[in-house]
Amino acid sequence: MDLAWWQDCVVYQIYPRSFQDSNNDGIGDLQGIIQRLDYIKSLGVDAIWLNPIFTSPMADFGYDISDYRDIDPIFGSMADVDLLIEKAHEYSLKVIFDLVLNHTSNKHPWFLESRKSKDSKKADYYIWNDTVPNNWKGAFGGRGWTFDKQRGQFYFHSFLPQQPDLNWRNPATVDSIFGEVRFWLEKGVDGFRLDVINSIVKDESFRDNPKAFGHRPRPYDMQRHIFDRNRPESHSKVKMLRKLVDTFPDRMLVGEIMVENPGEPELAASYLGKTGEELNLSFDFSLITTSFSAQKWQRCAKRWYEAVGMHRTPTWVMNNHDVSRSISRFSNNEQKARLATFFQLTQRGAIFLYYGEELGLRDSFVYRKDMQDPLGRRYWPFYRGRDAQRGPMVWSVGANHGFSESDPWLPFTKHANRYTVENQELEPDSMLSFYRSLIELRSHEPALRQGMCVFQEQQNTSLIVYTRSLDETQFLVLVNFSSKMQSVSFGEFGLRSSDSEEIFSTTSNSKQPRFSYENINLDGYEGVLLRINKLNI
Ligand code: NOJ
């Protein structure tokens, strides 16, 4: 099967502020990433995705862009980004940028022009109204409408007031946005992660969102967002964007789809288009929001596969800059974290990893006085914001852990010395070694990357069991979500022990003999990959 690179890639997400500081101001930058390309390559990943690096007042740490065509001086210069793209390509790493096309900064020249008056050249670039026309809210708190004195009208913002939403119903706005996208395509960027791409088009007549049932802490979540996002027209806009991107060879769009709580994989899949003519990939966050349970995770994965279908590509993600790190969600249980990664990396499709997870890096603890994230500042102490999962990378032992010579902009995780790359490189059983060997295994086995996944129904509710098959190759994957040893009979799958060979286990020192009589034995929280030499499952 000849697949495009993005159909079975492993992407490494970098939060540039926290990866590597090259000029010792305590904030990571592009030269820092260039310095660490060797390390990134050594993980075996295929691509890097950088959170926004464009010029920004940083009200939402780069998700408020004031110039799409330049790099924020905190991160470096245009020359640095050109060099990064060039060097990454020398390492055969694809480069994905984060594009925020739903909104800009309120300091963007388009907004400065738009707010001048109702007759300004860019009057309709944003969403303006004489009054507050409806109940739409900002996801970061408060009303979604803010009064602008200069123009004498209210403008709509899905997030902070400093992030006015662009008006995608205005063809001139769309032309301008596409101009910015084309600029980066011409520079050789391989793909874009599109921020909240299902929010871009709003209801033309500004109808009220209906109430949602149940109780959720954020007033924003007490509405069904049917009029301020997911309008049918957003699909046609995404199609147009895809057409533009496809005029360049081998490029890719992956979209963040905001969903109601809990996840809606069908919605995420709908943005791929019926025949794959919209986004190349979209994120489903169900495994992040679903508690650690074999039955629940199997249900999520099946639902996502079904929503996507065999003709399109699913993505698998456990971590990103918006959610508490998986190992912290698992109460620092490293076995659970390994198991989750094993489950993730043995699925078909595209894998997204987040810097530091390969070290088992925990959330940082951030005191109220040091809090940076606008969300944390607003909702503390009910919600501590997203700083915790954005802590600096730990490269080595000692002061500032090789991240910087100055104090970092956010604190390191506690006991950071335990997680350093320096130490973990020396230990064959470290989390880092585990990630490297699993990624390597995946990269050499087309059946793991592209093969069909079939879940095997069986009695034991602590286990997920599935096959991954392509042509003559077949793997049987067993994942034990319980802390207790579990045995499964080969007979359940019509096999004998001599039909299989162990290829990988998440536990390097299993206490059980793997095979006894006709059983496969798994330790607590162990995942095992077997190669099946007889094609009969
Ligand atoms: C989603 C991004 O992932 C998040 O970090 C950001 O704050 C919002 N979109 C607003 O752009």
Short description:
By secondary structure, this protein is α/β, with parallel strands linked by helices. The protein has 15 helices and 21 strands. It has two domains: 5-103 and 171-443, TIM Barrel, CATH 3.20.20; 452-532, Golgi alpha-mannosidase II (Immunoglobulin-like).
Structure description:
With 537 residues, the chain is an alpha/beta fold. The chain folds into two domains: 5-103 and 171-443, Alpha-Beta Barrel (TIM Barrel), CATH 3.20.20.80; 452-532, Immunoglobulin-like (Sandwich), CATH 2.60.40.1180. It is 24% helix and 17% strand. The chain has 15 helices and 21 strands. The protein has helices spanning 30-35, 37-42, 78-90, 109-114, 171-186, 232-245, 265-270, 286-289, 294-308, 326-329, 334-345, 374-379, 421-424, 431-444, 446-450; strands at 10-14, 47-50, 54-55, 67-71, 94-99, 128-129, 145-148, 153-156, 191-194, 252-255, 281-282, 315-317, 350-354, 452-455, 463-470, 473-480, 486-489, 500-505, 515-516, 519-522, 527-532. The strands form five sheets. An eight-stranded parallel β-sheet has the order 11-10-9-5-2-1-13-12, with helices on one face. Strand 15 (463-470) and strand 16 (473-480) form a beta hairpin. The longest helix is centred in the first third of the chain and has 16 residues, at 171-186. The protein is globular and about 80 Å long. It binds 1-deoxynojirimycin. 1-deoxynojirimycin is lined by residues 60, 63, 100, 159, 195-196, 256, 321-322.
